[in-house]
Amino acid sequence: MLALVVGLLPGAVSPADARPDPRWHFYTRDRTRYVSPWFAGARRIMVPYGCTRAPYYDPDPRCAHHRGFHHGIDVAMPCGTPLYAGRRGRVLSPSAPGRPGPAYGVHPFRIRSAVGGHVRDILIGHARRVYVQPGEWVRRGQLIARASDSGAPDGCHLHFEVRLPGRGYTGAIDPSSYLMLRPA
Ligand SMILES: [Zn+2]
């Protein structure tokens, strides 16, 4: 009964949300559901970081068989899933160097974060509702946006990317340790 009531609350997403988006296509054998400080619920990876069979990316010289390179990690989640700041940082101006292009949706945003002397720009792609302003400091656990399909033909998901500061996608690094996925 409680689950029913929670499910009816506007904007609520149950942790075990099982409504798959028919547009999702999973380019990984990993069927594990993960939790992370960056999003609500337990979710599957849709496209991992690195060379991929997913057809959305131009062939990359690093990849065999003319495959493309995915610069972030895509995590499948229903539209409206709450996204949180997984670490403290400052929201960059959209026009700061390394500005994300339209493939990231209408409201991509970046959080510049420093840990252990390493400054990184963490890019959140495909968000539609963004609750933070450029220049604002965000604390870990703060609601920052909601997932959407903005700029994403393959359904609602979070594109999570980590870049060297001020760099474009060519400055992307493996974001796994920043996303902090743990099996649910
Ligand atoms: Zn992506």
From TrEMBL:
Q: Which domain of life is it from?
A: Bacteria
Signal peptide stretch? none
Pfam families in the record, alphabetically? Answer: Peptidase_M23
Domain M23ase beta-sheet core: from-to ranges: 69-165
Xref: PANTHER family: MUREIN HYDROLASE ACTIVATOR ENVC (PTHR21666:SF270), PEPTIDASE-RELATED (PTHR21666)
Name the record gives this protein: M23ase beta-sheet core domain-containing protein
UniProt source species: Nocardioides panacihumi
